[in-house]
Amino acid sequence: MNTLTFDIESSHGKRQHAMTIRQLIVAGWTGRDVEAMEAHIRELEELGVKRPPYTPVFYRVAAQRLGSAPEIQVSGSASSGEAEFLLVHDADDIFVGIASDHTDREAETYGITVSKQMCEKPCSPTLWPLAEVEGHWDKLMLRSYATIDGERTLYQEGPVTAMRSPLDLLERFASHGGTFDEGSAMLCGTLPAIGGIRPAERFEIELEDPVLRRTLRHSYSVAALPIAG
Fold it and tell me: Which InterPro entries match (predicted)?
């Protein structure tokens, strides 16, 4: 289990709320646009990652991996982040946030589940009620920036329509025997990287709601630990 305190931002204002995460799921290959999803599969194949047996795929990761720390530590320099919208089920509500599926790319070539488990999953300290954005869900934008060799660059950008909707993903998760009950959190897929997947010393993620004029943000630095053997 993993107890996190989030700021809940809603039409009623802001409040702090502690949530206990018992189950963390990373949904992969969630694209609505088959061509865009195929592009992401191909860029991973170039790194030696095998195609999934079906899409979307739901990987399980330790609940303790989710958090809002400003820095993560990784083994070596072969990992990178991905901006993904996050779903969290608490009590009778589902909330949406922004998270990074930080992944070890070398480990990914021989075991995707292992590669997901190796890295923390940084997330925004603020969540929105899903009910407040469902009516204009397709207007939301995902974005990320990577700082590489001291230079900040746009790394990903596009609408959430690139991925399957929250309801669609939860229904597909259930069809594979999953239960998104209280204490569950799910990272829900990503966009192709502009210029290709590559490591960075700092990563920034955003989920923008242009209708309600608000943005969820989180940033974190990446400390690469030496590999002795």
Answer: DUF2848, Fumarylacetoacetase_C_sf
